[in-house]
Design goal:
Layout lengths: L4 H18 L29 E8 L8 H17 L8 E8 L3 H14 L3 E4 L5 H11 L3 E3 L5 H5 L3 E3 L3 H16 L4 E7 L4 H15 L4 E7 L7 H8 L5 E5 L2 H13 L6 E3 L7 H6 L6 E5 L11 H9 L7 H19 L5 H9 L29 E8 L2 E4 L5 E2 L9
Parallel strand pairs: 1-2, 1-3, 3-4, 4-5, 6-7, 6-8, 8-9, 9-10
Antiparallel strand pairs: 10-11, 11-12, 11-13
């Protein structure tokens, strides 16, 4: 059976993103002095009146994946907004969190609870059931804003705004970097063995690589819960590839990195942003220098005076600092910034404000434009740029030195 081009594109994006989560322009900094975090502000003690409510939803304490760091980061951003940035028009910002277990039912339950609270917006962390809840937010007219989108529903809803493209644009950016900057000819991939749509995703990825002149492509699949990743990693490195792209969930990435260290693999390995946690390179030991990570967010180790990034580091323990927690922290600050620019802090006005953005400053990320044109198939995507990071010493360092954008690669499979 031959898949239509549109079906392949949808399968490529939705399946790759799902496979990663299921088991677990300019170069300016958006959070700098002119970025969303800047305001004359005021202390939290000076804030008064009804709070400006932001809903927040993410998964915790479930075998499908637990991401408490996203909630902790969002709470930290709200505290920072109230203590240092003056809230919104002198009113305090209040976060209303709701925890899901990744099922459609729990996501719908959270949506109903949050809608009843009448928040001006809902900020998304990581939730596998969000697609089932998007209709509830749409009918309530409440915008859903995320810095770490995972599923196609988040990327296509008419009231959703994704301040990064998530794993979709991570993979496009890695491919762009390997082919346009590094000019590699031998690229192997190690990916999660999830049937159905993932097969179409790999077919689409292979088509992009071949169109970009990669002549040696080897695809190695493995179960996410395998007892031993050594055989799969050994197979991926066989034939001496120029690079290995790893498409696995965060909790599997540390195990893969540990195997790479044990086998003393020298081949560069490129991981998606959800794996950019200190635990992953540290698991590789001396081989950590061979590991690279896509991230829509700038390294948070040193920032050259970026106050928002400094606040992020101050309010989150090192073990909880990752692109996922950066996403929640940054998204809360971006929403607060737009609300502070509006005369009326309503959901309707906030939705209109997002749709009107053009190269709007982001926080620790590339500026965003939410006019629905970045990736036509997924109009909620507002930003497709990533950086390539490398573990250096005790932190991530930027090796790309500029934003990498692979969205034009979508034309090769559409």
């Amino acid at each position: 059976m031959t898949l239509s081009r549109r079906a392949v594109v949808a399968a490529v994006t939705a399946a790759v993103v799902l496979s990663v989560v299921l088991a677990g322009c300019t170069s300016r900094r958006g959070g700098g002095p002119a970025g969303p975090g800047r305001t004359n502000g005021g202390s939290a003690s000076q804030l008064s009146g009804p709070p400006v409510k932001l809903g927040f939803v993410s998964m915790e304490n479930t075998p499908l994946g637990s991401f408490p760091e996203t909630r902790i980061a969002a709470q930290g951003a709200v505290a920072y907004a109230n203590e240092a940035l003056g809230g919104v028009h002198g009113h305090p910002v209040e976060l209303v969190p709701c925890v899901t277990n990744g099922s459609p039912e729990s996501s719908q339950d959270c949506a109903n609870r949050l809608v009843a609270e009448k928040p001006v917006a809902v900020v998304g962390g990581v939730d596998l059931g969000t697609e089932a809840a998007m209709g509830l937010y749409e009918r309530a007219g409440i915008p859903y804003i995320s810095g770490s989108p995972q599923l196609s529903g988040e990327l296509s809803s008419r009231t959703s705004f994704s301040l990064t493209g998530g794993t979709l644009t991570d993979l496009l950016g890695i491919t762009e970097y390997l082919t346009a900057t590094k000019h590699l000819k031998k690229v192997h991939a190690l990916y999660a063995d999830l049937p159905g749509l993932l097969t179409a995703a790999i077919q689409g990825s292979e088509k992009i690589l071949r169109a970009r002149g990669v002549s040696d492509i080897q695809l190695v699949r493995e179960k996410v819960d395998t007892a031993d990743f050594a055989p799969a990693v050994s197979q991926a490195v066989s034939g001496d590839p120029d690079a290995i792209v790893v498409v696995f969930p965060a909790q599997s990435c540390a195990r893969i990195a540990q195997v790479a260290g044990t086998l003393q693999i020298k081949t560069p390995m490129y991981f998606v942003g959800s794996c950019a946690s200190p635990a992953v390179p540290r698991a590789a030991g001396p081989s950590a220098g061979n590991l690279y990570f896509a991230s829509a967010y700038l390294p948070f180790g040193t920032t050259g005076g970026d106050q928002d990034a400094e606040a992020f580091r101050a309010r989150l323990p090192e073990a909880q600092r990752s692109p996922l927690s950066q996403a929640s922290f940054a998204t809360v600050l971006v929403v607060r910034s737009l609300l502070a620019e509006m005369a009326q802090t309503t959901s309707t006005d906030l939705t209109a404000a997002f749709r009107a953005t053009r190269d709007h400053p982001n926080v620790m990320a590339h500026p965003f434009t939410c006019d629905g044109t970045a990736i036509n198939l997924f109009p909620a995507v507002c930003n497709t740029a990533i950086r390539i990071l490398r573990w250096s010493g005790n932190g991530f360092a930027d090796v790309s030195d500029t934003w990498v954008d692979g969205r034009e690669l979508m034309k090769l499979i559409t």
